[in-house]
Structures are given as structure tokens and as C-alpha cells.
Amino acid sequence: MKLITRDTDYAVRALCYMAKRRDEVVSVTQLVKSLKIPQPFLRKILQTLNQAGILESQKGVGGGFKLARPSGDIYLFDLIRVFQGDFELNECMFKKKLCPNRTTCSLRERLEVIEKYAVSQLEPVTIAELVKER
């Protein structure tokens, strides 16, 4: 299990890079060179962020991407949702059916406590904070 997937990690790295450049339009080529992320993979991530309203794209000569909103308004947990879906440590799945013990399982209760703690720690983190911490 991964708390942060590669997609989310690359998205965070790209957004931090752009946040340092504020309103500058950053090309995919510039991001690939600086972040050492494979271009097709990065392009897909940037398009997903654009569709989610986190980035704006500009086409043509001098085109690329820039933040659609201030970095202080882009939350790590929102990125996790975009790339990973709902945050859940254990889906309690068995052969594609819900476990019959889901409501009475004591392990599930403990996992829910851990999930709530993880969410409480991740929810308030913004790209602006991550840029400042580096």
C-alpha cells in the first residue's frame, strides 16, 4: 500500500516547481528537464490537473501550464483525491464483494481511526507550505 502514489508525487513536484515561478507559463520541456520525469507521463498528469481546474494550459509558441489559483489554495489532499480517489486504507474487499463482517470487524474500526488521523494531517497541507518548507 502506498499513501502517496507516483502520480500524486509527480503532480506535487510539478506544482511546487510552478509555484516558485508564480504566474509564469512553464513548458512541459522545462518541467521534464528540471524534474527528470518522463515526458509522456508528465503530460498526462498535467492534463489531469488542467481538467481538475488546478492548472491552466496555454497553447502555441511559448505555451505550457501555470497555476489556475494561488498555491495556498491547492491542497495536497485534493491532489490525492484527483489521482487516487477516496482515501481508504482498507476497502474490505473479498472476491469483489464487500466483506460480510465489515460492520463488526474490530480491525476495520482501528483502520478507520488511522485513516481519520492521516486525513487530519494531510488535509491542511498546501503547495505553498511545501514550497516554503523546502
UniProtKB/TrEMBL annotation:
SUPFAM superfamilies found in the cross-reference section: Winged helix' DNA-binding domain (SSF46785)
MF annotations from Gene Ontology: DNA-binding transcription factor activity
GO cellular component entries: cytosol
Record PANTHER family: TRANSCRIPTIONAL REGULATOR, WINGED HELIX-TURN-HELIX TRANSCRIPTIONAL REGULATOR, RRF2 FAMILY
NCBIfam families per the UniProt record, alphabetical: rrf2_super (TIGR00738)
Protein name (database record): Rrf2 family transcriptional regulator
Organism: Candidatus Danuiimicrobium aquiferis
